[in-house]
Design a protein that fits this description.
This protein has about 350 residues and is an alpha/beta fold. It has two domains: about 260 residues, Alpha-Beta Barrel (TIM Barrel), CATH 3.20.20.70; about 70 residues, Antifreeze-like/N-acetylneuraminic acid synthase C-terminal domain (Type Iii Antifreeze Protein Isoform Hplc 12). It is built from twelve helices and twelve strands. The strands form three sheets. The protein has an eight-stranded parallel beta sheet with strand order 5-4-3-10-9-8-7-6. The longest helix has 18 residues. It is elongated and about 100 Å long. The model has no long low-confidence stretch (mean pLDDT about 95).
Length: about 350
């Protein structure tokens, strides 16, 4: 079990920057210009990878599969209309590389695995619905590349079966992506606490594939320990297509990346205390023991002659009763803080 792995030059793990995937999916609308524009915007936002999906209707859905309740078309026809032309693979890979992005695409059949491997993808991303196809998982594992496996809908037992299938081929470079498999996902089914459950159960990097509206849930997932974030992305949510309506637009993607990087910094070391940057606030904003009236040298200090207020240059308030009854070693003026050297 590996707690870290490498995708290209990026290290995936809890102590490394979150690996951010802009999921383009079918939002290219079978237009190469749109596909490249999406890559442009993803690069501008600062993500690590762009991801497409490589499928054929004939090997994905039975022609007799019933419609989903939200769709007006048969699944077979919907998939057929949104297939990624496989001749695009190499061109998109090279275009993404010029933008310093990893090109990924989820394979949904054996030929897609071979095509993407030949192109040179640095990792394979497997969709949640394919988790139970152990034969396909084994075939992908044989390519000896890292596997990012979404686990929406899955029980721990099903995830264990999938991991065993992959490892049986000698591949142990695996990331699991927790997710909810509704598009969009209502927040009440997201269950971000499962990120920690998966981490404890399998002791490998865990990420989050976010299908909720907006960016806030994905940012929260990073605070929960997600090492990878995948988020659907479009040029315009009003475009026609199955995945546009719940995807985020370029400005939101840029904000997502910024927020994730801010959260990473904010997570800190876990050591409780004050930072060097807070030293002035520590000294001037905290309270200490201060003279409430003039105190003459040589007199014993009475309680009513003292007050606790800011700044914190004097003796700490918890020592107030110790100061009472001590003798002043100098004339102390009203509103001066009292130090140990003064008594």
């Amino acid at each position: 079990m590996k707690k870290e792995l490498r995708i290209g030059k990026k290290i995936i793990g809890s102590t490394h920057p979150t690996y951010i995937i802009a999921e383009i999916g079918a939002n290219h609308n079978r237009d190469l210009t749109i596909a490249k524009k999406l890559i442009d915007e993803a690069a501008e936002a600062g993500v690590d990878a762009v991801k497409f999906q490589t499928y054929k209707a004939e090997t994905l859905y039975s022609r007799h599969a019933p419609k989903f309740s939200k769709d007006d078309v048969e699944p077979f026809d919907l998939i057929k209309a949104n297939e990624l032309p496989r001749e695009w693979h190499r061109e998109l890979y090279k275009y993404a590389a010029r933008k310093k992005l990893h090109f990924l695409s989820s394979p949904f059949d054996y030929d897609a695995v071979d095509d993407l491997d030949t192109v040179g993808v640095p990792a394979f991303k497997v969709a949640s619905f394919e988790l139970v196809d152990l034969g396909l998982l084994k075939y992908i594992a044989q390519k000896n590349k890292p596997i990012i496996l979404s686990v929406g809908l899955a029980t721990l037992g099903e995830i264990e079966d999938a991991l065993n299938a992959i490892r049986s081929q000698g591949n142990d470079d695996i990331v699991l992506l927790h997710c909810a498999s509704l598009y969009p996902s209502p927040v009440e089914i997201v269950n971000l606490n499962a990120i920690q459950t998966l981490s404890k159960a399998f002791q490998i990097p865990i990420g989050f594939s976010d299908h909720t509206l907006g960016i806030h849930i994905a940012v929260a997932a990073v605070a929960k320990g997600a090492s990878v974030i995948e988020k659907h992305f479009t040029l315009d949510r009003t475009m026609k297509g199955p995945d546009h309506s719940f995807a985020i637009e370029p400005g939101e993607l840029k904000q997502l990346v910024k927020n994730i990087r801010d959260v990473e910094i904010a997570m800190g070391t876990g050591v409780k205390g004050r930072s060097k940057a807070e030293q002035e606030m520590y000294e001037k904003g905290r309270r200490s023991i201060i003279a409430a009236r003039d105190i003459k040298k040589g007199t014993k200090i009475k309680r009513e002659w003292l007050i606790v207020k800011r700044p914190g240059y004097g003796i700490k308030p918890k020592y107030l009763e110790i100061v009472v009854g001590r003798t002043a070693k100098r004339d102390i003026k009203t509103d001066e803080w009292i130090t140990w050297d003064d008594i």
